[in-house]
Every structure is written in structure tokens, then in C-alpha cells.
UniProtKB/TrEMBL annotation:
InterPro entries: Fumarylacetoacetase-like_C, Fumarylacetoacetase_C_sf. It holds the Pfam family FAA_hydrolase. This is Isomerase. It comes from the Bacteria. The lineage of its organism: Bacteria, Pseudomonadati, Pseudomonadota, Gammaproteobacteria, Oceanospirillales. It comes from Marinomonas pontica.
């Protein structure tokens, strides 16, 4: 049997020190999971339950460590902003997971950018509409190869530095320890509303000092113990 239209290409991420690939399923994002970012977005930074939104797998752009890729400045926007995030790759599915099960569900970690059409997101928020127009567009999720977890890395990630530079100037700098909801807590809360599946990605939130980039700018994003990615913005 043939498809009536061409089949969409499957998005995959390489796995460090492996010849296997990670097939991207769904991409879940956590909103405002650092207190200081909540403040700059006008929210109360108290420990409100996390909320989630999604990007399509087609939004993902694989980026090799220590190399540079280009993404295009998006259509319909005049405020294109960066958000550096720790990304968690899920190996085991499930619903209503415990903290222990959440930890066991993790395959590994990656460095990601939740690129945002902030002006379109703001318009949607003002009218009480979904955020997809500001979040789920082409090339909005550059993501590094996946670094497989081990006991040492899991301990290191908890306190790892996370940061982003634009044209060599540091814009975002924080630590994973400042997450309002920990990695395992995020997985638990997400599994209470969606049954997780192998191949899912979770973008765990961004620290403060998000900001805009223009065509010609180059972003360098990193998470300590994982590596860094470089992304150039083109016309």
C-alpha cells in the first residue's frame, strides 16, 4: 500500500558513543521552571504546579556538539528569542510514575534551545489562546546528541551549570539545581496527565535573561558535563 502524500521524514538524534539513534516522538516543554525566569515573565515564582506545552517532533533540529548549524529567522515575527534548556530523553514509558520510576525512565540528557516567537506568544497569551504559534514552528528546537545517563552523570547534572552566549557575550547563566521542579518531579507530574512513551523528549525549562536574536547572530548554548552547541541565525 502506498501513501497518498509523501511520508514525513522521521526525526532522530544521535547518541554519544553509540551507533544507535534516538527516534524523536513527542516534545514536551515545561513552562517557567526557574523562579527568576518566572519573575521576568511577570509570574509569581512560588512553587505552583508545573504546566506543559508541546512542540512537534518536526521542530527538532539535530546539532552536533562543538559544531555550528544555521536556522532561519522565522516568518511572521519581529521578536525571536532564545531559551537554553536541559533536555531529558525518555527510554521507558508509563503513567502516574513515582519518583523512582521517573529516574529509571531517563535514557539520557541533551542541550536544547526552545526558540520562541515571543511577540506571537504574547498575543496568544493576551487572548487566552494556545501557545503553539509562538513555540511550535519550524526549527524552533535545536537539540544536541543525547548523552546516556550513568550514576555519576545523574549526580553531576543536578548541580550542572547551564548557560547561553550570543556573539560571545553571556546572556543566560544558572544551575540545574535552581529548577523549581526537579527533573524527576517534572517527569512524575507530566506522567500524571500524559502517558509517556519511549522516544519522548522533555525540555525542562529555561533560566532568567531570555532575549532576542537577529539574523547574523550566533548562539552558544551549554550544559556542564554534556557539552555545547552553536546555532547561527540567518535571514
Amino acid at each position: 500500500m502506498e501513501y497518498i502524500v509523501p511520508e514525513q521524514k522521521k526525526v532522530v538524534l544521535p547518541v554519544v558513543n553509540s551507533d544507535k539513534l534516538f527516534p524523536v516522538g513527542r516534545v514536551y516543554c515545561v513552562g517557567r521552571n526557574y523562579a527568576e525566569h518566572s519573575k521576568e515573565m511577570g509570574d509569581d515564582p512560588e512553587r505552583d504546579p508545573p504546566f506543559f506545552f508541546a512542540k512537534d517532533a518536526s521542530c527538532v533540529v539535530p546539532v552536533c556538539f562543538s559544531s555550528c548549524i544555521s536556522i532561519q529567522y522565522p516568518m511572521a515575527s519581529n521578536q525571536f528569542e532564545y531559551e537554553v534548556e536541559l533536555v531529558v530523553a525518555i527510554a521507558q514509558g508509563g503513567r502516574n510514575l513515582t519518583l523512582e520510576q521517573a529516574g529509571d525512565s531517563i535514557l539520557g540528557y541533551a542541550v536544547g534551545l526552545d526558540m520562541t516567537r515571543r511577540d506571537l506568544q504574547a498575543q496568544a497569551k493576551k487572548k487566552g489562546r494556545p501557545w503553539e504559534v509562538g513555540k511550535a514552528f519550524d526549527e524552533s528546537a535545536p537539540i544536541s546528541p543525547i548523552v546516556l545517563k550513568n550514576d555519576a552523570l545523574m549526580d553531576q547534572i543536578v548541580n550542572a551549570e547551564i548557560g547561553l552566549q550570543v556573539n560571545g557575550l553571556t546572556k543566560q547563566l544558572s544551575h540545574i539545581s535552581k529548577l523549581t521542579w526537579s527533573i524527576e518531579e517534572v517527569i512524575c507530574k507530566l506522567s500524571d496527565v500524559f502517558e509517556l512513551r519511549p522516544g519522548d523528549l522533555i525540555m525542562t525549562g529555561t533560566p532568567e535573561n531570555v532575549g532576542a536574536v537577529m539574523a547574523g547572530d550566533e548562539m552558544t548554548a551549554w550544559v556542564e558535563h554534556l557539552g555545547e552547541i552553536r546555532v547561527n541565525v540567518t535571514d
